[in-house]
Amino acid sequence: MSVKTIMFDLDGTLLPMDQDIFIKEYFTGLAVKLAPYGYEPEKLIKAIYKGVYTMQTNDGSCTNEKAFWRFFTSVYGEKAAEHEPVFYDFYKNEFQQVAKSCGYNPKAKEIIELCKARGLRVVLATNPLFPSVATESRMRWAGLDKSDFEYFTVYENSSYCKPNPKYYYEILEKIGADPKECAMVGNDVTEDMVTRELGMQVFLLTDDLINKNNADISVYPNGSFDELKKWIEENT
Q: Average pLDDT in the 161-176 region?
């Protein structure tokens, strides 16, 4: 069955990056932004990490946004919710400096344009740990825009995270797609290639490969953007 919908990961896939450097720059900037509001940097970063874990283990009973803020206010008290606008201001402003820690590959835009030219449905399946304002920024860093995608996941509209298969099932349900007619393109063996278990086709982009368990990647179609282009042309 030919592919009609392609889901793309963002960080390390369409947006080149070293995840460790990105996270360091991101958390450092956020800590500086929130320090004037009484947030001690070390405690704040630990709370953010635990808040991320809370989203990663979300059971679907609420959005990731609600899961994060429920945890964050359990640490800092309900008054911390009043500082949510400060977080959003950070993403609109200081967060843009984090783009310097990321790369840029014009072939990412070319691949998306190829998919649209072939009449494919294109979805951005980025791990929904960020608010929309931050995800839209990262799209722009990659030379893309939210209009390039039929649907994209953020912490406001998602109730699960990668590599939970329910994260992908949630997308499939929302866009009304058959997994047998879908493919996932990503750079993380654990988080992205799990979609094969759903009956989806996969392509592992190896430019910024993440393979924490040293899995045999030869079992997946894989390679650079050039190999991905050929794969799309052969399978859609």
A: 98
